[in-house]
């Protein structure tokens, strides 16, 4: 899953295999392409949520999206591509949300590592609640082959980002353990949010977890 993220620099344009930057589609074509992708991903999320990844059928996804099956293959290559696109969408939104929160906190003059970490954690958890159907899908064991390895890789990167934000010396085992515990708390809380009955209960959990994180973030005396 995603983590507390800071972004720097500018992104380079996507490249074709021949090394040339991809030319922009005409505005109308770009809008149509975006609408097709949105319809396919929305339908895929519905079907994956209802039936699980393994039992989900591409014909049903195409039917619900009102997009031809051939167009589905053209855009995503199949069921695995749809699932990974949903994962990427969730990750990017969580990264955008937490990065924006950290930037706003720093603009207010906040520079305490623990305060920044907890603010980022709150943003991440609120994002997990707002996108709870997708968040819950991505923590299930029923995913495409190789997805667990991708998820573990991302989790390791999440721990490293949190360590930098907390200004923890990753060379010291005690520091690594502290950050892993904190990251695990956030991940576990995100899973619990998916089962909340309403927004009031979700906010109670977010507030409770942030209080726990403040307590656990302080280095042992």
Describe the structure.
With 221 residues, the protein is mainly alpha-helical. The protein contains 9 helices and no strands. Helix 1 crosses helix 4. Mean pLDDT is 87; it is low at 5-23.
Helix content: over 70%
Subunit organisation of the chains: single chain
Number of strands: 0
CA-CA gap between termini: 32 Å
Mean pLDDT reading: 87
Secondary-structure element pattern, one letter each: HHHHHHHHH
Radius of gyration: 19 Å
Could you list the spans in which at least 5 consecutive residues all have pLDDT below 50? 5-23
Strand-residue proportion: under 5%
Structure annotation, total helices: 9
Q: Helix- and strand-based class?
A: mainly alpha
Gross morphology: elongated
The largest β sheet comes out as: none
């Amino acid at each position: 899953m995603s983590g507390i993220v800071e972004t720097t620099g500018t992104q380079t344009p996507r490249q074709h295999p021949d090394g040339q930057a991809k030319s922009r589609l005409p505005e109308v074509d770009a809008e149509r392409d975006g609408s097709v992708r949105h319809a396919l991903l929305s339908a895929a999320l519905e079907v994956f949520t209802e039936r699980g990844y393994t039992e989900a059928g591409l014909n049903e996804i195409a039917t619900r999206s009102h997009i031809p099956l051939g167009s589905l293959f053209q855009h995503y290559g199949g069921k695995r591509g749809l699932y990974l696109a949903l994962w990427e969408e969730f990750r990017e939104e969580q990264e955008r949300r937490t990065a924006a929160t950290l930037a706003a906190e720093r603009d207010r003059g906040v520079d305490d590592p623990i305060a920044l970490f907890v603010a980022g954690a709150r943003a991440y958890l609120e994002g997990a609640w707002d996108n709870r159907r997708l968040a819950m899908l991505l923590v299930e064991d029923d995913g495409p082959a190789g997805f667990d390895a991708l998820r573990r890789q991302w989790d390791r990167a999440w721990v490293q980002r949190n360590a930098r934000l907390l200004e923890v010396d990753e060379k010291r085992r005690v520091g690594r353990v502290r950050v892993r515990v904190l990251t695990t708390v956030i991940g576990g809380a995100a899973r619990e949010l998916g089962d909340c009955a309403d927004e009031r209960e979700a906010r109670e959990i977010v507030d409770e977890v942030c209080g726990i994180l403040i307590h656990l973030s302080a280095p042992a005396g």
